[in-house]
Amino acid sequence: MAGTSTPGFSVGAVVVAAGKSARMDGVDKIFASVLGRPLLSFALDQLEAFSPVTEIVLVVDSGSLRQGRDLIDAAGYQKVIYVCPGGERRQDSVSSGLDSLTPCDWVIVHDGARPCLDVPMLERGLAAAQEAGAAVAGVPVTDTIKVVSSQGTVLDTPDRRSLWAAQTPQIFRYDLLMDAHRQCANDVTDDAMMVESLGHSVKMFLGSYDNLKVTTPEDLILAEAFLHSRVAGH
């Protein structure tokens, strides 16, 4: 069942959670327990609560379809319309999600392994996307960055004042992102790269330093601490 539409425009969301969890010591990170709940549920909660979103498609590994559907049923999410299998690459998984989403005006792409999403971040992102057609969450880097050769030699030290670490959510005009997926065949690490390859500008908006992507067991501990702090703050 889809959510109530917002006058003037419609927003869909694709939650990508089809990774192999290769660095998680055999644990499927998106279903790992955090504060007694599956990790994936925290991002879904925020998208469910974000009123402009009318539909959510969840993309999981083909071996986790039943587990994903059981999670949706148990939580009673009203906006998650479909749980579909991912592809070989991240961009293939996003494309699968887009194909399952009802055409809309704007689409949010978010990594299910980033549980510290919140509604204010989504609000900032949608506002930025409406300015530029494409917007990406990120944070200014705090470390000095080195460009290093394959032999381990430092080639350059770019000015970190112009460097941001990209995150999700990433928000795009639906037709723009669909065009990018049709036209970009190169391997990319995020959807913004696909849109950039079309020559379209992408606006960066402020994400959060808490908005980490869980890739290791240690990240789970950090995510739990951030989410516990959020719960305690309320």
Q: Name the shape in a single word.
A: globular
How are the strands ordered across the major sheet? 5-4-1-6-10-7-11
Radius of gyration, in angstroms, nearest whole number: 17 Å
Give the count of helical stretches. 7
CATH C-level name: Alpha Beta
Straight-line distance between termini:
30 Å
The poorly predicted ranges are 1-7
- Major beta sheet summary: 7 strands, mixed
- Order of H and E elements: EEEHEHEHEHEEEEHHEH
Number of structural domains: 1
The helicity comes to: 25-40%
Relative strand content: 15-25%
Structural category: alpha/beta
CATH architecture annotation name? Alpha-Beta Complex
Average pLDDT taken over every residue: 92
Explain what the structure shows.
It is a single chain. By secondary structure, this protein is of the alpha/beta class. The protein has one domain (11-233): Spore Coat Polysaccharide Biosynthesis Protein SpsA, Chain A, CATH 3.90.550. Helices cover 35% and strands 24% of the residues. The chain has helices at residues 39-49, 65-75, 90-100, 119-132, 174-183, 191-197, 217-233; strands at 11-17, 33-34, 37-38, 53-60, 80-85, 106-111, 134-140, 147-148, 154-156, 164-173, 203-206. The strands form three sheets. Strands 5-4-1-6-10-7-11 form a seven-stranded mixed β-sheet, with helices on both faces. Strands 2-3 form a two-stranded antiparallel sheet. It has a two-stranded antiparallel sheet with strand order 8-9. The longest helix has 17 residues, at 217-233. It is globular. The two termini are 30 Å apart.
